[in-house]
Write a structure and sequence with these properties.
Blueprint lengths: L4 E5 L5 H8 L3 E6 L9 E4 L2 H6 L15 E4 L12 H6 L5 H11 L3 E6 L8 E3 L12 E5 L17 E2 L8 E2 L13 H9 L6 H5 L4 H22 L8
Parallel strand pairs: 1-2, 1-4, 2-3, 4-5
Antiparallel strand pairs: 5-7, 6-7, 8-9
Helix pairs in contact: 1-7
Length: about 240
């Protein structure tokens, strides 16, 4: 059985892509910025225009060549780290538009974003559940049943330098936001995220591959179940 193919929209440098690949997918990434560190096949294009014109431009891809779609629209419009004025005037709200286009494809999809984004009935994943030195809560909307995981912060103990000037003492998790501040912090961030192929700026925008590896395994099981239901039954003696 050939590997199913997943379309990775707003792909960035490939944190989500690597998780899906580990789960058994071939991945094609699309982003409107060059992504020299993206580890799989990459197309430079506007992600939403790519979906609208799939097959007409950008290498002749056809929708039928994909089994599922993942999309990570820019999160600045919803992030608590973005100022209110910038959220309202500089960063577009692309979630609703993305959802509309993905629903029109008829394919299983995943839309990922930060807490506060207007996702519908999302599952939430947390780095603590995966044994990562992170919180990094992320929401995942799907049009198929996706299992959430509980937080598991109890094992995370204060042992890291805090990036919050208001916080005294050590932090229980590695902060992966803003600039690298001290020697060795980049390596701590990479280890916490499970990512070692990105620049510091790319890492800040990524999600840990562990998240989408878990999602990918569930998606793979759903696709396999769909395939079995579509397959004609075998008669006695076949």
């Amino acid at each position: 059985m050939s590997r199913p193919r997943l379309l990775d929209l707003f792909c960035g440098a490939g944190g989500a892509a690597v998780g899906y690949h580990r789960a058994g997918f071939d991945v094609v990434g699309v982003d409107n910025r060059p992504q020299p560190h993206y580890p799989f096949q990459f197309v430079k294009a506007d992600a939403l225009l790519f979906v609208e014109g799939l097959g007409a431009h950008w290498g002749g891809w056809e929708l039928e060549e994909f089994d599922a779609i993942h999309a990570s629209p820019p999160c600045q419009a919803y992030s608590s780290l973005t100022g209110r004025w910038a959220r309202q005037h500089l960063h577009p709200d692309l979630v609703a538009m993305t959802r509309e286009l993905l629903q029109a494809t008829g394919l299983p999809y995943v839309i990922e974003n930060v807490e506060g984004a207007p996702l519908e009935n999302p599952a939430r994943l947390c780095g603590s559940w995966f044994g990562l030195d992170l919180h990094r809560h992320r929401l995942f909307e799907t049009n198929w049943p996706l299992m959430s995981t509980p937080c598991s912060h109890h094992w995370q103990r204060p042992r890291f330098r805090s990036l919050d000037k208001r916080q005294k003492g050590l932090a229980a998790v590695v902060g992966v936001h803003g600039h690298v501040n001290y020697a060795g912090e980049r390596e701590l961030r990479e280890q916490a995220m499970g990512i070692d192929w990105m620049t510091p700026a790319e890492l800040v925008e990524a999600i840990p591959p562990a998240y989408t590896e878990l999602i990918g395994h569930q998606l793979m099981q759903m696709l396999e179940a769909q395939s079995l239901r579509r397959s004609p039954g075998k008669g006695a003696g076949d």
